[in-house]
Amino acid sequence: MAGTLIQGCASPGAAIDKEAQARAAAEQPAPPKPEEFPDPARANWKQGAFPAPKAFERVRPGMGKDPLRELLGWPHFSEGLWGVREWNYIFHFYNGKGSDYTTCQYMVRFNADNLATGAWWKDPECALLAQPPAATPIPASARLAPPQKLTLSADGLFRFDGAAATDLLPEGRARVERLAGELRHGFRALHYVVVTGHTDRLGGDAYNEALSLARANTVRDLLVQQGIERKLIRTAGMGKRQPVVSDCEGTRASPALLQCLQPNRRVEIDVAGEQ
Fold first, then answer.
1. pTM
2. Which domain holds residue 180?
3. N or C: which end of the chain has fewer CB within 10 A?
4. 139: in domain
5. Are 153 and 107 in a shared domain?
6. Is residue 125 within 8 Å of 182, Cβ to Cβ?
7. CA pair distance 106, 89, nearest whole angstrom
């Protein structure tokens, strides 16, 4: 009986219906809260794995379990036999400090059709480790510009609580478009662009992380529309984890508190390249 269950669990899935795939891709559920990720001590594969970073570029909402298993391997936790709606992983990434590495937790969630509705890192910074900017050969004669950081106020970019392209304010859109022009004309070769969204401390952790990542993705998409290569851009959403100011008093969203917290609501753009 046990052998039958295992064989049934591992058998190939049915062909994916295109309409069901589109529905799954459109669901856009809220990201899991940090406490919803399982305790690593409960993992069946406690050693985790060192994945190929390229695999994460191919993970998309609407994917079935078979292609995800080919990309990521079997989940590292016991998720059950039937009606499994969540896969969890422990992944390691070398961080550039010799043999030292950073351990990250990754979750994929599925709908009733067994199609992925989203994939998330417990720590948003792991997204940058999983998909580092592409390496660019540097000629010996190249004049490298020091890495540059540009900070854009989210209040000047988006309508209140907005993150989509339709929420961009006219002056915010114009600022990003000007930045794209500066990047195209100011660098002979771009090496990478990292767009990181940040929020203030008002609101829940999961909401703030989703909002900050959505804003970073919108800025990235606008840069791509203006001619910056998508493969050079990475995005991350830090939520409220990295405040610029931390001495604002109060917990209710009063005008005074919103004004005090304004510097924390921002999008940071880090750029490196050859001039």
1. 0.57
2. 144-274
3. N
4. no
5. no
6. no
7. 5
Residues contacting residue 190 through CB under 8 Å, at least 6 positions apart: 136, 183, 228, 229, 232, 271, 272, 273
Domain count, the chain: 2
What is the enclosing helix (H) or strand (E) of 110?
strand 101-110
Alpha-carbon distance 260 to 263, whole Å?
8
Q: Which long-range contacts (CB under 8 A, 24 or more apart) does 214-218 make?
A: 214/163, 214/164, 215/154, 215/157, 215/158, 215/163, 215/267, 216/267, 218/158, 218/163, 218/164, 218/165, 218/167, 218/168
What is the distance between the alpha carbons of residues 275 and 264, in angstroms, rounded to a whole number? 31
In a domain, 2, yes or no: no
- Provide the residue type at 213 as one letter: L
- 167: domain CATH number? 3.30.1330.60
Give the model confidence (pLDDT) of 29-85 as tens digits: 878 888 899 999 999 999 999 998 888 888 988 999 999 999 999 999 987 667 789
Largest CA distance in the chain: 68
Return the DSSP state at 224.
H
Q: Which two tokens stand for residue 27?
A: 């669901």
In this prediction, residue 39 carries a pLDDT of 95
Residue 128 domain-assigned? no
Q: Give the domain-ending residue among 69, 92, 123.
A: 123
Q: Cα(67)–Cα(108) distance, rounded to whole angstroms?
A: 13
CA-based nearest residue to 25, from 35, 17, 34, 36: 17
* Collapsed DSSP state (helix, strand, coil) of residue 219: helix
Strands 233-237 and 189-198: parallel
Encoded tokens for 252 = 């209710």
